[in-house]
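Protein 1 of 2
SEQ + STRUCT:
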Amino acid sequence: MLRSRQEEASSLTSFPDSISGAGDRDPFTSVPLLLSVERAADYLGLSVSTLNRLRCSGGGPSYAKLGARVVYRAVDLEAFVDARICGSTSEYALAA
């Protein structure tokens, strides 16, 4: 059976179920417990390059290295967002 290029590309960049968390989901949110860089960026509404830059320069969410792969825990992404909650634009400088 022939697969489209998009399907082939996604299979090359996706994690096996045991790493991606496809089988391991938070029972309250149905979010995978471990997310790839692409999925984490989508979850946060950021581009992959922004998330990569934050990881390299500091100031991004906590991550784990599993061999050569970078993964994010959903709980760490939520903590990253929670630390940046602001009530007004003047509070933004304090949160960042």
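Protein 2 of 2
SEQ + STRUCT:
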Amino acid sequence: MVPEGETEPIRSVVLQLIGADGRLPTRDVDLLAHMVVAAVNEAALLIARARDSQDALARGEAAVDILLDRLVAGDPTTREF
């Protein structure tokens, strides 16, 4: 889990990734970055509590990859904001 005061560097990277190519409305990028950080924190909690931490880590990493891929997937020219 990311300590509360240390989320800014992570959010900054997430903001750059989310807003990099205009696939999401700029007005929602900060909110979405907060949501991604929350999702990563939740995954960390599940991994920390898992009986098989290696398996949970692999599944958590895959889930975060899917989340980010789908968050920014698609053709930005066909989206309406």
